Amino acid sequence: MAMDDLLSETVSLSESELIAANPPEPKSIGSGIVKSILGKGGASVVYEIWNPKLEIYRAVKLWRPVQTEKTIQRFENEIKITAKLHHPNIVDIYTVGEWNGLPYIEMEKIQGTNLKELIKTRGAIPELVAAAIVICICRALSYAHNHEYILSGKSCKGVIHCDIKPANIMISETGTIKLMDFGIAHPSNNPNPSEKSSITGSLQYMSPEQLNSRPLDPRSDLYSLGVLLYELLSGTKAFPASSIKELIQKRKKNDFSPLGFFCKNLSAKARAIVEKLMEVDPDKRFQSADELMEEIERSYHELTEETPEVFLSRFLAGEKIKNKSRVKVSKLARLSMFFFLLCSSIFIVFLWSGRKTTGFNFIQANPSPVDSLTKNPSPPPSQQSIPAATPTNNSRKKQSTIAPRSPASVKTGVSSGRKATVQPRPKLAQPSVKEVESVLNSASTAQEEVNDATILDEIRRLVNEGQLSQAERMLQEFPIKDGEYHLIYAELHLKRNRTKAAMQEAEKALRVAAARISPSELREKVLYYKAKVLSVEYENAPDKQNGQKAMEAWYEVKYALRSNTAHPHYIKADAEIRRISVSLQ
Questions:
Q1: Which region holds residue 343: left if phi is over 0, alpha if psi is between -120 and 50, else beta?
Q2: Which helix (H) or strand (E) holds 297?
Q3: Which among 59, 399, 457, 519 is least buried, having the fewest CB atoms inside 10 angstroms?
Q4: DSSP character string of 367-431
């Protein structure tokens, strides 16, 4: 084993704990046949096995022979604690057993790599990628630090991992982060179970309080996460050393080079986060994983609207990620869109001003409100709409009290010298006197606003009342360029169990402004609808992968509403996370 790997290994400095040589190689173990060795540590060897009955790969962690009971106790502790944790970002345990008198754990096999290997092959990780990784680790730590459970007959709250390091963080090909190896973890309400003469952990990553055998709390894991983040951003160890003695000296002084020495283009905020995490005094660090996650997510979502999992999968697939590149692209896209809309508006005004001479006369010019309501019966104001888009432009020409254009006139684009006849929509009630008076007393600008809003309200009412066929006809007949329109369409698809179509409509809503919903509220609603879709997909196919995707989506909803925990969507997200977590056990 190389010196660098040795100094990053989880060890106990107690003189009484001695680790024997490698165990004999098993041909089969657990529920399957051994295919390869996934990794070796100071206390265990991890094998890849193939389960022929289930036709899946799994991982088996086999303990090495030992001369004392201490590592056996660590193993039993890992089993008891990890078996009680069920979270999308924590590795799952399936079973435990013994092979030739040696204990083992059978767990899920992650198709991917660990962060240690990722740093070896790719070096320094782009800042946005590192942020996505840390967000997912924070989710796991937030869950573990606040989890309530029974251990050895005692009620416990919170688990301190005590061994956060790159080798213990897996990243799958789909971008899912998995925290593993709870071998030295212990309950938060038992802060210092170890002997005073024993220091157990990874010297490169353990917190100062671990190193000095002081009582621990969840902030100890945050220090270790800071050392890990330092390594992700710089591609180098925070405490490089050529011997254990040199490493211990650096650790006692908390002697690490500033990140700016390695990363000239790193943001000041990223440097500040790492330095705060690596404070010797726990009171000067972030006080919880939630606080850290909120700080990082704020910057992350300013640069991308993709979930961390999607973003990481793109990175692993080889897509080049540059720090802050999305901001420039986003500004350029908005500028281009502005000029496009400006030119389109000028072109529309030009066509509209010359409609009498050029033949662009789809509807009667300037009809009076009374004429439009009496000569050509149309929906009452609660159901009125603006015309659909013409083939020459995506923008709708708003005209108060105008009925939808006939399909024939839309297809031709020009009239044959006479005005096109607008056919009344069937099966709609005649307007009442009150509704006619409302139209007569409304200004044209107000009428335009009513057209959009009342159509959306009417379609939403139909969806809520279960009149899905009529709602879908209206959605197809009146395509409105508004984010709220796509959200309603997503709800309709979801009620008809068209999950893929519902997801597509929800994603479209992010690309279109909403007249009545602020951008932040629109984004929250989109996250909520996407989470609902993934929950339905999990119910339709209740496998582990679908359950994890749904839980990750609901975590996004909870974060978006973290300042309003009384919001119905936050309450729903919390309930769904608990429900899915229980069902995955």
A1: alpha
A2: helix 289-303
A3: 519
A4: --HHHHHHTS----GGG--PPPPPTT-SS----TTPPPPPHHHHHH-S-SSSPPPPPPPTT-PPP
pLDDT in tens, 553-566: 888 888 778 778 88
Mean pLDDT of 188-195: 58
CA 367 to chain centre: 51
Q: Which helix (H) or strand (E) holds 534?
A: helix 519-540
95 residue type, one letter: T
Contacts of 80 (CB under 8 A, 6+ apart): 151, 152
Does residue 125 contact residue 233 with C-beta atoms inside 8 Å?
Answer: yes
For residue 190, what are its two tokens? Answer: 């038992």
**In this structure, are strands 32-40 and 44-51 parallel, antiparallel, or unpaired?**
antiparallel
Contacts of 319 (CB under 8 A, 6+ apart): none
State the Cα–Cα distance between residues 570 and 106, nearest whole angstrom: 35
112-114/10-12 β-pairing: unpaired
CA 322 – CA 120 distance, rounded (Å): 19
Amino acid in position 426? P
Q: What value, to the nearest 5°, has the Cα angle with vertex 118 and ends 113 and 122? A: 145
Let me know: does 123 contact 182? Beta carbons within 8 Å.
no
Q: Provide φ and ψ at 430, rounded to 5°.
A: -70, 150
Rounded Cα–Cα distance for residues 310 and 176 (Å): 9
Lookup: tokens for 88? 């999308």
Look at residue 338 and give its three-state secondary structure: helix
Q: How many CB atoms lie within 10 A of CB 129?
A: 22
Q: Which 8-state DSSP code applies to residue 109?
A: P
- Do 304 and 315 contact (CB within 8 A), yes or no? no
In the beta sheet, which residues pair with residue 113? Answer: 171
pLDDT of residue 566: 83
Residues paired with residue 48 on neighbouring β-strands, in sequence order: 36, 59
Distances from the Cα of 547 to the Cα of 533, 541, 584, angstroms: 12, 9, 7
Strand partners, 172: 112
Backbone angles phi, psi at 543, to 5 degrees: -100, 170
* Res. 422: pLDDT tops 60: no
Q: Are 303 and 270 in contact (CB under 8 A)?
A: no
What is the Cα–Cα distance from 386 to 362, expressed in whole angstroms?
A: 13
Average pLDDT over residues 399-409: 37
**Quick check: 361 and 411 in contact, CB under 8 A?**
no
Q: Which residues contact 184 (CB under 8 A, 6 or more apart)?
A: 10, 74, 77, 162, 163, 200, 201
Q: What SS3 class is residue 104?
A: strand
All domains of the chain in start order, with CATH: 3-13+24-316 (1.10.510.10), 358-447+460-477 (no CATH), 482-585 (1.25.40)
**Spatial distance between the Cα atoms of 341 and 407, rounded to a whole number of angstroms:** 26
Categorize the per-residue pLDDT at 395 as very low, low, confident or very high, splitting at 50, 70 and 90: very low
CA 554 to chain centre: 8
CA-to-CA separations, 518 to 258, 395, 479, 512, 515, in angstroms, rounded: 41, 21, 20, 12, 8
**CA gap 125, 153 in Å, rounded:** 44
| 131: number of Cβ within 10 Å | 25
Read off φ and ψ for residue 312, nearest 5 degrees: -70, -35
- Answer yes or no: is pLDDT of 382 > 80: no
